[in-house]
Amino acid sequence: MMRAALLQSFIRESSPQAIPTSMQHVRVKVHAGVATITMDRPDSRNALDINLITDLQTAFSDVHQEKRVKAIVFVGSGNDFCSGIDLKVLAEIAALPQHESLEQWFALWREFTELLEQILRCPKVVVAAIDGTACGAGLALALASDMMVLSQRAKLSANAVNLGLVGGATTTLLEFRLGGAIASRLALSGDEIDADRTFAMGVCDTPVPVDQIWVAANELATRCTEAPLEAIQANKRLLNEGVGERLFSQLSAAAADSATACTTESATEGIRAFLENRPPQWP
User: Fold this and answer.
1) Fewest CB within 10 angstroms: 65, 66, 150, 164, which?
2) Domains defined along the chain, listed by start
3) Which UniProt keyword terms apply here (predicted)?
């Protein structure tokens, strides 16, 4: 009943107000103290290129400074949350001269790591609404958020190993959020887990129907706005900077590992095989 009432209220009241922006791939709207940040590259399953990463950095910065916002719902447009780093971008970088490609890989992973740190340090509660796939770097975005709400068709995976890559940030955040045993299983096997399995692990509440994903995430975010903002900020700082005191240095090291791994023959073959839709032939 609460979710139905929330949805009706959302429809009945004035439309959510968009924050003025020049961003190309991200939309931001605010409703009743909750901002919704939407990744908007549905044709690529919201794959992360440098433009989307930069737009997300801008969006979280804008929302951080927006006084009327007390919590954030983080979603992807279309049928997926985020399919990870755009492998077309990695292939384009691989085609550059070696000294240029290494510099570009480091820049890409550094910018992505800075985005993760920005989400982790955001003083406002961030709820990731996961519909469809959250894969690789997309899973890292979900794990950097404070909480996740999953639709019944949501699927999570850390699949870098299957592409000959190193998902450094994803593995680091898996270990931080879910513990070493689960991180090892997902990062080393590349296995995909569905919403029911994620719920069984205690990562999320009961998965919801697809058409209820925003409502459920907004409901959770709204509940988190009922406490004093100072208390929320202090507790989040304790969780992400106190309990996870090594997290940020680990993320920096993970970015370097991911960039270095992109220079290997296995990574080149894994990326090419994925883009050519064929099984990889590992060197």
Assistant:
1) 65
2) 2-275 (3.90.226.10)
3) Lyase
